[in-house]
Amino acid sequence: MNRRHFLKNSSLLGFATLLTQFPVWGKSVFAWENPIHNIPENKGINPAWIKSLYLKGDKIAYRKSKDELKYIGMPIGGLHTGTVYIGGDGKLWLWQVFNDSYDGMNEGVENKVIQWHNWKEMVKVRPRDGAAYVEPPLAKDLQKFTQGFQIQVLDGKKIQLKDLDAALWDEVIFEPTYPSCKITYTSQDFPVDVTLTAFTPYIPLDVENSSLPLSCFHLDVVNKTNKSLDIQLIGYLENGVHHGRTDFGQVKKVAQLHEKKDGAKLIQFSCKDVPEEFQLAGDHGTMGITCEDANAIYHVNYKLKDLFNKKANDENISAVDFQESQIGAIQISKKLAPKKSTAARFAIAWHFNHPHPKLKAKIKDAKDGYWYGTKFKDAAAVLAYYLENKTKLTSETLDWVDTWNDSSLPYWFLDRTFLNIGTLATANTMRFATGRFWGWEGIGACAGTCTHVWQYGQSMGRIFPELERNLRETTDLGVGFKPDTGAIIFRAEYESRPAIDGQAGVILRFYRDHQMSKDDAFLKRNWSNLKKAIQFVLDQDKNGDGMTDTPMENTLDAVWEGEIAWIVGLCLAAVQAGAKMAEEVADAEFQKICENYVLKGAKHMDEELFNGEYYIHRPNKDFGRKKLGSYNTCHIDQVYGQAWTHQLNLPRINDKKKTLSALQALWKYNFTNDVGPYIKTHLNGRPYALAGDGGMVMNTNPKNEDKPYGENVTWQLGYFHECMSGFEHQVAAHMIAEGMLDEGLILTRKIHDRYHGSKRNPFNEIECSDHYARAMASYGSFINACGFTYHGPQKSIGFDPKINPEEFRAAFTAAEGWGTFSQRLNLKEGPMADIFMRYGTLTLKRLSLGDGFASHQNRSLTVSLNGHPLETSKKGGSDNKKTMEFAEEIILRKGDRLIISYS
């Protein structure tokens, strides 16, 4: 493409702008078919800014005054119950609960195709290609039906009314602490301030109580004046059942008051006289609203107007024509003394138990609806369960929020590494009536809980390990398993082939999920088939050098030929995990096979696939680079197998010095503070990062080789020029584990900044569609920041903090409980650590601490539980760790504290 043609057709740049941005014309800039590498080695980052990344800092806060609220959409429903967002001003939006998402038909959070200029031409961008990154959906455009809260204040004879709507307040501040948020509303001329705390019941390790189609709202009102005030608080919700249909003639909308035996009340919405052909439709179901105030007044057909003159309505049911709006409301009256506060508690539920018909046709587990549908017959039943169990649901959810945020780690880091687990609370995942867990890659895109995508995620296995074990047994070693070969089909019912990286990833996840179990029952009952899956990986080494060389599908949607470092390393890590599991089930023969394979393969990988600076892809020996591959370029996943070993406390598979060199090469050649210059010259990538954004590019050609990706490149080459956050997160986690703390934090922060509320929805990391599963790799950075290791069946736990270890505190989860670990290394009397349980139990036989404790080997160690000394035996440490065995197995329960100190 010559420059005259470019100037004529460019819709974004004028000639003067081009001259400014591109002072050098010709091949070095505009030869898109063979562009030069143009990522600067000197990143030019201010050292003071890097230092600030380690500080606790301020809580994340998005403000109306800074125009930071319009894109915010935090998932506010239970696991696999559809997507309900809470916006920056507290209003619910999106309402993707009607089961209409499906591959190629209704993808993403907004099924909209946009136009984007890729620096060569205008192209169409679908939801699966990143449309919501370029043009983020606006909350005000997708609220769908009326919902919210009002407050009226009677001050003498003056009545003042405000809806909790950003437009009506001087300032609105949204503070996220997923799974909760706090929204503060203030106006100088309004006599009260309001705080809304919203969440869904969300309790790590408790899948059932974290899977309610329910949102909770706690309103707190403060009287700013020196006078008593009469106030009215109202929560309201429109009947959204079958919302948006235009083909309903005789259908009636129904709002009905339900009164329970214990006096609790709620309003349920439904539709009656629905034609039979629509009674199994995805939008056929119920919704409801309730509150915890026994004196509240319920209105089944409410008009938004003056509350002080509105009396209790004798009606307990309302039926209106389908075309009419029907709003139910709950009204609470309060007397508020000067400078005092009062509270009100509401909840909203939904129940739409009919999966998309194409899912039901393809997946037999989907035929009878969802898991929550087996627990509750309608929204009223969901609300009734909440009202009966609200103390437990609320306290344990908010205990987790407090535990997670009671940390020495920076607020921004806590936010970014955890919030991606919100993917489980969107339309991206489902749990069918049979109990089977299932997910897209991104909402409505790429079916089958794809093994080579989901294997990157680290959060579900740590927060809800039951779901990962479910996935291993019902899908990976269930409907997707080929027992004759040991192959795991990478999309279960939606495919017929295995993917080599997905296969290895399942094995590694199996070991993690075993470690996150209370005993070895999960491993033992699956060992026979799991062993076949491991053998399948061993069988893909055709030349016997310990390096996988069988051409097979991988996560970049292509079949690569040759010996590929990232696939070789991933398979070696999987076989290493296989050796450990074989040891635990006393399969000594297979353990030895695996260990020998790893020794051979690791040696050859380090010797033959390391080019002196980084790990590469060695071409097929028979026909070289004829097909697409990464070859001698710098690939983001090149030491991904080694990264997995840090998540699972496995022995190294790659030489540490070479691994560091590879990570440094990724930093040098693939990371940039501004991807703009790169994507202007390296085309066909999807817009997951734009000019001005920092990030790590998937694959670069730093040596400027001719035809670096092979002689017959295909459309998948576009992937190489993208920034996909899931891959970036795994690299950042690995950097933290290997001691490259600055680089790991910078990369994580650049992703965090790409998703700042002023630019797009902070809660939606996008790859192939919205809420992409791979982004749950972010939790791996938290694991490595803590230096956390755990093995439930062996009753072993360990901590070796990497970030600010001198004064460290962070949450942890184990098989049956969670709590807080903290340590202080600079005390005069010597280092001290403690484990405080906040939920469940923790059974221990072994505890390992980092080098801050190992350096005091000659001092007397004291371990006590709730002030009572425990007998321990010293055990030899490795990798500068201090490990101790307890004379007897101990069990920590909620409220227990284990203290380790030197006297």
Automatic annotation (TrEMBL):
Name of the protein described by the UniProt record: GH116 family glycosyl-hydrolase
Pfam families given in the database record: DUF608, Glyco_hydr_116N
E.C. code: 3.2.1.-
Gene3D superfamilies assigned: 1.50.10.10
GO MF term list: hydrolase activity, acting on glycosyl bonds
Top class in the EC scheme: hydrolase
Keyword Metal-binding on entry: no
Glycosyl-hydrolase family 116 N-terminal domain mapped to chain residues: 73-392
InterPro entries in alphabetical order: 6-hairpin_glycosidase_sf, 6hp_glycosidase-like_sf, GH116_catalytic, GH116_N, Non-lysos_glucosylceramidase
Domain Glycosyl-hydrolase family 116 catalytic region: 501-778
Swiss-Prot/TrEMBL keywords: Glycosidase, Hydrolase
